[in-house]
Each structure stands twice: as C-alpha cells, then as structure tokens.
C-alpha cells in the first residue's frame, strides 16, 4: 500500500496566478484609482477617462449577457443607451432632474422597448436576428433625430447633472466616479448571479442545443426574451450615466456604429466572461484615447509629415490592431489569460 502511494502521480498545482482573481483585481484597481490619480497631476482627466471606461463596461457587460451566454448578436444594442440618455435629458428639460425618478423611467422604458422588439426579433435566427435588431435600433435613432423639441440631430445640453433626493451629489467628478463604480459592481454582481442561476443554465443550454432544451420541458424563447429585457435595462442604466457624464444627449449615442463598438468590446475581452467585457471596454477606449499620441510621438517614424498624417488618421492603425487581437487572441483577453495560466 505504501509502495502504491509512493508511485501514484501527484497533481501539483502551479503557483502561478489564478484567472478567477481577475474580477477582484479589476475592481480593486478601479477603487484605488481615485486615490492614485492626484499623483498623476491630471486627476480630473484620469477620473473622467476611467468613469467613461466603467460606463462602457456596464454597456458591454449587458451585451455579453445575451451575446456570450445566449448567442444573440444584437446590432441595435446602443438603442438602450439612447433610451437611458434621453430619459435623463427629456425629464431634465421638463424640470424633473432627480435621478430617483429618471433612472426608474429609463429602466422601464428600456424594458418595454426590449420586451416588444425582443418578442419580434427572437422569432428569427442568425443573420435575420442581427438585421432586425439593427432595424429597430435605426428606427429609434431616426426617431431621436426627428425630436426637434429636444435638439433633433444636434442633441441637447443638460442644465446640470442629475440630483439625488434633491441634492447635487453627482456634481463632483469624484462623487460621480464612485457612483459609476457602484453601478458597475452592482450590474456585475447581478449579472453574475443571473448567469449562475438555473435561469442562466437554461440560457446557456438554449445556446448550445435549443431543441434539446425544448424536449426536456424548457421554452428557450421565454428565457431568451427575459435575458434580452434584463440586458436592455442594464444598458439603459449605462445610458443614464453616459448622459450625466457628458451633460449632453445626442442621437449619436444609439447609432449602429456604437452597437458595433460594443460587440467589438465583448469579443475583445472574451465572449461569455462578464469581467472580460469590462476589460475589453477598457482596452478599446484606452487604445482609442492614447493611440493618436503614440503614433504622433513614435520615434521610428522619422518623417514628421508622415507621422503627423498617421496620427490624424489613427483609425487606419486602430482597426487592424483590434482585428489582429481578435484573430490571434482566441477567446479574447480572457482566453489569453487562461492559456497563460495553463501554459
């Protein structure tokens, strides 16, 4: 017996990092940022940029809930951002500036739009689902451009950030940062609980084999529609935050290009990984922010005119970089991290 125990191979877990710690590290970094920002000498800029990252992280995470776990490729998801933003803008223009009213209205509006459009869209599959969600998103976009009373195509400027219980708690950039972080964490915790629940298991099962789920007594349509509504509401919350950060509302919030960017963020971070969607949003926005400066200051490009031209047309470099990351980083950033753990 002793000899058998001695010859039995022992599985030793490598002392490397653990991918499951990524969410803890991610939220710890967001929490530490306001404390470290003053040392950068540009505290306002850092907080503004990271707040934008968190807002888009919420939006990307809401899309990942249906794309990564339900294989529902929505090309009109930015419509929910627009609903949340216009709920803030329209109510503020009529003197209702309290977030305790604006946010519930945005969530209800997003849920109703998702319920109606989802009930129609989910009766289609594949490319037809993509096209019909795109059509609904564009329908809402053109509706926003026609609202002359609320700025039309030019958008509308908010008088101030939303009040909370009648108090201007969001006026400070630092306070707004912490509220955005709280919303990000709450959305992540809620989405993770949904994915881990029986509901989430049925949703994943419908993604893999809807016929089998139907055969064992579950109706994938109902679960997919519920997930679509939940996803829309979370995106609507992101729209409320986006309007408050910019203090401006525009139809540009809900263009199909914005929906495409959200899909890219999710794929970049890793499908079916909620914190991966946040990382994808962060990488996308940070590249978008700093790539022009990097290109302009690149020392290996000796010709100043060429370097300046490339910096002005930085999207010519930005696009191929993102495509190469998606092509060669199978499973996105989270896929790379998992392979690094086992490699």
UniProtKB/TrEMBL annotation:
One of its GO terms (molecular function) is branched-chain amino acid transmembrane transporter activity. Keywords: Cell membrane, Membrane, Transmembrane, Transmembrane helix. It is a multi-pass membrane protein. GO terms for cellular component: plasma membrane. The chain crosses the membrane at residues 21-39, 45-67, 74-93, 99-120, 127-150, 175-195, 262-287, 317-337. It is found in: Cell membrane. Its main location: membrane. PANTHER family: ABC TRANSPORTER ATP-BINDING PROTEIN, HIGH-AFFINITY BRANCHED-CHAIN AMINO ACID TRANSPORT SYSTEM PERMEASE. This is Amino acid/amide ABC transporter membrane protein 2 (HAAT family).
């Amino acid at each position: 017996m002793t000899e058998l125990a001695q010859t039995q191979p022992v599985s030793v877990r490598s002392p490397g990092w653990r991918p499951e710690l990524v969410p803890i590290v991610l939220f710890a970094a967001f929490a530490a940022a306001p404390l470290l920002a003053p040392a950068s000498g540009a505290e306002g800029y850092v907080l503004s940029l990271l707040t934008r990252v968190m807002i888009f992280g919420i939006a990307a995470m809401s899309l990942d809930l249906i794309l990564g776990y339900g294989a529902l490729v929505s090309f009109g998801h930015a419509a929910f951002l627009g609903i949340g933003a216009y709920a803030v803008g329209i109510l503020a223009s009529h003197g209702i500036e309290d977030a305790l009213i604006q946010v519930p209205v945005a969530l209800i509006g997003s849920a109703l739009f998702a319920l109606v459009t989802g009930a129609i869209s989910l009766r289609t599959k594949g490319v037809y689902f993509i096209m019909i969600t795109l059509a609904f998103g564009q329908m809402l976009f053109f509706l926003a451009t026609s609202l002359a009373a609320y700025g039309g195509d030019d958008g509308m400027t908010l008088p101030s950030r939303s009040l909370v219980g009648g108090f201007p708690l969001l006026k400070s950039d630092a306070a707004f940062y912490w509220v955005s972080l709280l919303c990000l964490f709450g959305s992540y915790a809620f989405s993770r609980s949904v994915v881990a629940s029986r509901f989430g298991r049925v949703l994943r099962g419908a993604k893999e084999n809807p016929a089998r789920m139907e055969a064992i007594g579950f109706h994938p349509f109902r679960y997919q529609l519920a997930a679509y509504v939940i996803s829309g509401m979370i995106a609507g919350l992101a729209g409320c935050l986006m309007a408050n950060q910019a203090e401006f509302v525009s139809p540009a919030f809900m263009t199909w290009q914005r929906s495409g960017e959200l899909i890219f963020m999710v794929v970049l971070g890793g499908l079916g990984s909620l914190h991966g969607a946040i990382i994808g949003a962060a990488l996308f926005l940070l590249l978008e922010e700093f790539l022009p400066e990097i290109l302009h200051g690149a020392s290996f490009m000796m010709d100043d005119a060429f370097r300046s031209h490339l910096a002005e047309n930085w999207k010519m470099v930005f696009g191929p970089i993102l495509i190469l990351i998606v092509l060669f980083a199978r499973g996105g950033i989270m896929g790379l991290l998992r392979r690094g753990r086992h490699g």
